[in-house]
Amino acid sequence: MAAVCQVTGAVPGFGHNISHSHRRTKRRFDPNIQKKTYFVPSLGRKVTLTLSVKGIKVIDARGIEAVVADLQKRGVKF
What we know:
The protein is α+β, with helices and mostly antiparallel strands and 78 residues long. Helix content is 27%, strand content 36%. Helix 1 (53-62) crosses helix 2. One of its GO terms (biological process) is translation. Keywords: Ribonucleoprotein, Ribosomal protein.
């Protein structure tokens, strides 16, 4: 599963692990991605979205109907 939020567009960040001796190795900072299922009354069905926790908070604040309408405008398949 790709670590990308469908609502906020959060993607992994990259950086380094730094050891005690200050050697650097590549690492990846993944967003907290969750699969969440919502019932959308306007579509009359359930929709499963891949969301970061920030995306879940956006849905709680704006409502699933508004978020799904924005996703449809952008052409996101779900």
